[in-house]
Amino acid sequence: MKNTLQSVFQLGFKDYASKHKLPLHYHKAADHIMSCRTAILGGHSVYCKNNHLDGVWYNSCKHRSCPQCNGIGIYRWVEKQKERLLNCNHLHIVFPLPHEYHEYWHLNVTLINNLMFQAAKESLMELLVKDPEKKYLDALPGIMMALHTWGRNLSTHPHIHCMLTEGGFNGQKWVGKKGSVLLPAKVLRAKYQGKLNALIRAASKKKNWHHPEGKSIQQLINLSNKLGRKKWHVYIKEHFNYIGPLLKYLVNYMCGGPLKNTQITAVNTHQVTFKYYPHKKNPDGKKDNAAYRTESFDQFFKLYLQHIPQPGKILIRHYGLYANTSGKHLNAARSQLGQPPKPTKEETKEKFLSWSDYLKKISDAIEKPLCKKCKEPLDVYKELPRVNIKDLIRGQLEKLTNSRLKYLHGECHAPP
């Protein structure tokens, strides 16, 4: 068995789930990961016209936390976003949630995630668009945000990565930054931390807010006041002239989950070892100095499962010129920057990337693969139905029972 996330779940999740009360979406994610590209999901077999079987290919689970089947989804999403984005410099901004709030985050995941998005969006819009003194931009920028909940070693680390255009559209023309920088990091940090603290204090007084056991509203207010006096690590990275690498960086948080199969280095019956690249030893996203972490199955699942998002929750959001409702302004800005209008939904559908086109892009696959026996094209596909687990078990029991009866009646010489 290969060292993969699927093998880890197949070996240890059932036992872990029997000992812990887990939310339904954890169980569903685990079922998807364990059945991905197995007979359970069905598939298809490939033949040439002479009926030579070339291989059997099982279907993918397509769950966004599965690391082995999201390649084409990532590629399609990146290509779609490239058709939306403006041909200008983009800033990369990081909005964190201080670690002192982490115990509240575990109890109010969806609510605090939404508050982080709200605080980050309102901070940017108030400074760049709605500022009555018009200090910085006074125009509508394009904003894309992605929620990321894990550190490189699977630790709890909720934060938002933001792509921000280094300029905006004022209703008539494209406007660039006024000074040497679009927005001072200190100003943005103060605005964001003030907003998020205020939003959390307000949310904590509502019925749907959950406090840690033994902690009161007043304790949270005191914590919020204390954090208001600290310097948060809101920072603005250098601008990107080419948006491709940053897009791929962001989409990794939407598809594939927090751990790739290549990171899992060892698996046995009770523990997992995986590698990661600590920030301090690998600045700027480099991958030179790996560290290794070994955890029991119980601790590994506790770390991993906390990062599986609830179904239907949007992890990547668009605001300003990139919002779905800003098509008119976006096209006007694109015209100013020498770009054609954003493709319509119908035009986007026509360019939908098929599996065969995707394979051609990522490999040296030939136009039509040939049969190894007769060299004829492999273009005959036969669908394989899904395997029902209950029927499979029932069939195995019937087979075992029949073989035992044959042995008892002397029809075979070896006991089953």
Q: How would you briefly describe this protein structure?
A:
With 416 residues, the protein is of the alpha+beta class. The protein has 13 helices and 13 strands. Among the domains are: 71-258 and 308-353, Replication Protein E1, Chain: A (3-Layer(aba) Sandwich), CATH 3.40.1310; 386-416.
Distance linking N and C termini: 26 Å
Provide the β-strand percentage band. Answer: 15-25%
Form type = globular
Mean pLDDT: 84
Compressed to H and E, one letter per element, the order equals HHEEHEHHEEEEHHEHEEEHEHHHEH
Level-2 CATH architecture of the domain at 71-258 and 308-353: 3-Layer(aba) Sandwich
Number of strands: 13
Structural class: alpha+beta
CATH uppermost class of the domain at 71-258 and 308-353: Alpha Beta
Strand order across the biggest sheet?
Answer: 8-3-5-4-12
Tell me the CATH topology of the domain at 71-258 and 308-353: Replication Protein E1, Chain: A
Number of helices: 13
Give Rg in angstroms.
26 Å
